[in-house]
Design brief:
The protein has about 60 residues and is mainly α. The protein contains 2 helices and no strands.
Length: about 60
């Protein structure tokens, strides 16, 4: 895997982490939407799927 691909994966991870944090904070501020943990875990699962797709594409 090239250095550029690793950099892209790192940036995707960091942006995804910020997105998951923003989701958790938004739901924490308005608990009527849903439980914060479920939203954060769903966002994290989407992040893992995206990173896996990028790594799989870059590796092969």
């Amino acid at each position: 895997m090239s250095t550029l691909a690793l950099l892209v994966v790192l940036l995707l991870f960091l942006v995804g982490l910020m997105f998951v944090s923003a989701l958790a904070y938004a739901v924490y501020r308005r608990p009527v939407l849903t439980q914060p943990l479920m939203v954060a875990l769903t966002g994290a699962a989407v992040l893992v799927a995206a990173v896996t797709a990028v790594v799989g594409t870059a590796a092969g």
